[in-house]
Amino acid sequence: xxxxxxxxxxxxxxxxxxxxxxxxxxxxxxxxxxxxxxxxxxxxxxxxxxxxxxxxxxxxxxxxxxxxxxxxxxxxxxxxxxxxxxxxxxxxxxxxxxxxxxxxxxxxxxxxxxxxxxxxxxxxxxxxxxxxxxxxxxxxxxxxxxxxxxxxxxxxxxxxxxxxxxxxxxxxxxxxxxxxxxxxxxxxxxxxxxxxxxxxxxxxxxxxxxx
Length: 211
Description:
The protein is of the alpha/beta class. About 30% of the residues lie in helices and about 10% in strands. The chain contains six helices and seven strands, in the order αβαβαβαββββαα. A five-stranded mixed beta sheet has the order 1-7-6-5-4, sandwiched between helices. The radius of gyration is 17 Å and the shape is globular. The chain starts with 12 loop residues before the first helix and ends in a 24-residue tail after the last helix.
């Protein structure tokens, strides 16, 4: 896809274009990009809390520390569970039960969103060590229009997309336009066999329950 942005004030249009390409590739009705997978998880968990989910959240003791921080910062308690899932069987992708939020930092697949239940939130990472290595960034895939609209406002200080109207207190965590431009370039040449890093085994992570 070729995208030209002549007005620097509209540079974030490149993010819109990358989101559209990512949604088409994954088969998700909506893709909302932010500056990290940790913040994608944080926003998705906040949405679930607003919708009435009370937790606590089931979480294995050994995973990336940002996942536990996103859970706590979203206002949930953690229930540590050693046997909640098998990393290899789940290919590094797991549900943060009882929410509908999936940590899929290492799981990018063509039309892969179709494998998930309706009204869920699949969070991806674009860290340099992940499948789509943009250096930074993350995304939320969903079929929930209302949630997608909320994510787009929440990531931009609670503002209505494309305006300065603030509708609720939000956070500043947009995907930078240059990262989205890289994403468009790489995704245009992408296939599922390009780079598929195996999930890290649990022993490579610290026991977060001790921190």
